[in-house]
Specification:
Blueprint lengths: L1 H33 L2 H34 L3 H7 L4 H4 L23 H4 L9 H17 L3
Length: 144
């Protein structure tokens, strides 16, 4: 029984809005007829601006309330913004040291032919002897 009464109210709602709007318009017309012709035009412009402002407020309220219903809960929003730990932290170092890979086997004995590409004879041995002597003297001065 309550549903049928609700159905009648919902069906009659547009008619009630139309009736209210028409009575409002007739009252405004009556008030405008009672006012002099010089004040009638600004009054109608004011009422028109007020009606447009009222309409904009109703539309804005409808948009903001519908936007609130569509928003997700804060927990759902926070869950979608999480950064994976792999991207946030540097990975840990391995617990083992990798083996050193030699390019060739270590030699036990070097022949003169093997040493030649790496050995250089200084041009002036006296100059190098003085350099070495001054470096050793500097090191020895630091020792008590």
């Amino acid at each position: 029984m309550a549903l049928s009464g609700l159905k009648e109210i919902i069906n009659g709602f547009p008619d009630k809005i139309k009736e209210t709007f028409s009575t409002l318009v007739t009252r405004i017309k009556d008030a405008a007829n009672n006012i002099g012709p010089n004040k009638r035009k600004p009054l109608l412009i004011g009422f028109g601006a007020l009606a447009v402002l009222f309409l904009i407020l109703i539309i804005a309220a409808g948009i903001s309330s519908s936007g609130k219903r569509r928003r997700a809960s804060p927990d759902a929003v926070a869950g979608s913004l999480t950064i994976p730990a792999e991207e946030l932290f540097i990975p840990a170092e391995p617990d083992f040291v990798p083996e050193f890979i030699f390019e060739r086997e270590r030699r036990r004995f070097w022949s003169l032919e093997d040493i030649r590409p790496y050995w250089r004879i200084p041009d002036s041995s006296d100059r190098w002897r003085e350099e070495i002597k001054s470096a050793v003297d500097k090191l020895m001065e630091g020792i008590p």
